[in-house]
Amino acid sequence: MSTVAPSDWSTRPAPEGPDGWIGRATEVAAVLATDAVARDRAGATPYAEVQLLKDAGLVTLLGPTAHGGAGQDWPTAYRVVREVAAADGSIGQLLGYHYLWNWAARLVGTREQWEQVEAEAARQRWFFGGAVNPRDKDVVVRDEGETLVFSGRKSFSTGSRVSDVTVLEGVLERTDDHVFAVVPSDSDGLVFHDDWDNIGQRLTESGSVTLDEVRVPWAAAAGYVDKEFRPRVYNTLNVPTIQLVFAHFYLGIAAGALETAAVYTRTKARSWLHGGHERAVDEPYVLDAYGDLTAKLWAAEALADQVSAEGQRLHEDPDAVTERDRGAFEVRVAAVKARATDVALEVTNRIFEVTGARSTAAAEGLDRFWRNVRTHTLHDPVAYKRREVGRFRLTGDLPEPTWYS
Q1: This prediction's pTM
Q2: Which residues in the chain are classed under CATH 2.40.110.10?
Q3: Where are the CATH 1.10.540.10 domain residues in the chain?
Q4: CA distance 165 to 98
């Protein structure tokens, strides 16, 4: 992979404010775009890509400034994810998940816990992965006095081998209580399997993981005090936060697809021999399609940005978040997720209508955008997101917090 030498960024002042950091993400995207097709085809573990994110300072975007982080907010983080995903959907997903799992200490943990995790993560430039697939309930956590022992298997673990630390989740033995903990990714008993072989998001390192007697001190159990969990409504914002991450990298992939297609249309596409136009860019149906897709994408991006700003207000005062605040935000996120899914699938599919038969050549790599969106949008059925919005519209009912709502 082509890389930017760390000195290229380290010798320049750090970006200032959201626009500066979004600009930095655009620079990273430009590097990733140079060989995105080849890297997608190779499917190699993205060590260099994650190092690029670290060198550019994007990994510590949300980290406290006192410990070397950029101190930016979630709307900026979402936009950064969108920029990166436009060049490489896999790396956009990895970065978005990293932000969520880094923030998970604040969402779930005590103040002492999250301050310690965030400070260390910023100082060490940790890259986070997560073994937290909620549909797998076969990780059991055993209490051994001062120690917790995680054992079992998760079928997905995004970030796996490229992560420095991993968020583990399991159920405390003989209870229904879930336990989260951050552990080094090279912990004894934590084994990542190289079995992610899906049609899209090929570089996300999302294969299965085995937990064989992974030992964690009780003090690391997020949100627990004296072995009792201290619940807050804010704990449940993990789902709408990650669902917004999904929506933003879907829109980023769609934007990348549309721009890549536009370049192809301008430079390689041929007009239809019976259309009466010398250039493809003058074909009425081509202009109509680009106008239609661009308008839909812009509308979805605007909605995503608005809802991201609404969520930031909840993050700024976690102790004040009420169940109604949380539920109303989840409905808005559900609407974004539904729109982003539909728009991204339409854009990544219809670009072939305006690029032509020759654009399906493997060397062009236009299929990767659709494969990436199609793969991840199956994470949870979008019909259930529309159901949340429809129920709120008809009855005023807000969704109850679950692993997916």
Answers
A1: 0.96
A2: 130-229
A3: 6-127
A4: 10
The two tokens of residue 95 are 């970065």
Domain 6-127 bears CATH identifier 1.10.540.10: yes
CA angle 161, 106, 246 (to 5 degrees): 55
Does domain 130-229 correspond to CATH entry 2.40.110.10? yes
How far apart are alpha carbons 219 and 388 in whole angstroms? 37
Assess if CATH 1.20.140.10 describes domain 233-395.
yes
pLDDT, residue 88, reads 98
Token output for 117? 């995790």
The whole-angstrom separation of Cα 365 and Cα 203 is: 15
Question: Would you say 162 and 48 are in contact if contact means Cβ atoms under 8 Å apart?
Answer: no
Q: Residue 379 has what DSSP assignment?
A: S
Cα dihedral across residues 192, 109, 62, 18: positive or negative: positive
Taking alpha carbons only, the member of 229, 121, 206 closest to residue 378 is 206
Please say whether the beta carbons of 101 and 163 come within 8 A.
Answer: no
Q: What CA–CA distance (Å, rounded) separates 313 from 311?
A: 5
Splitting the chain (405 residues) into consecutive groups of 10 residues, what average pLDDT does each group show?
57 91 97 96 96 96 97 98 98 98 96 97 98 83 97 94 97 93 97 95 96 97 96 96 98 98 96 86 95 98 98 96 98 98 98 96 97 97 98 97 92
**Please, are residues 344 and 254 in contact by the beta-carbon 8 Å criterion?**
yes
Residue 135 and residue 121 in contact, taking contact as beta carbons nearer than 8 Å? no
Q: How far is CA 20 from CA 28, 61, 72, 80, 121, in A?
A: 13, 11, 11, 10, 22
**Contacts of 78 by beta carbon, 8 Å cutoff, 6+ apart:** 96, 244, 245, 248, 304, 305, 308
Return the biggest CA–CA distance within the chain. 80
DSSP string covering 204-231: S----EEEEEEEEEGGGSTTEETTEE--
Cβ neighbours around 18 below 10 Å, total = 15
Strands 209-217 and 147-154: antiparallel
What span, in angstroms and rounded, lies between the C-alpha atoms of 242 and 229? 22
Backbone angles phi, psi at 166, to 5 degrees: -130, 135
* Chain region(s) in the chain for CATH 1.20.140.10: 233-395
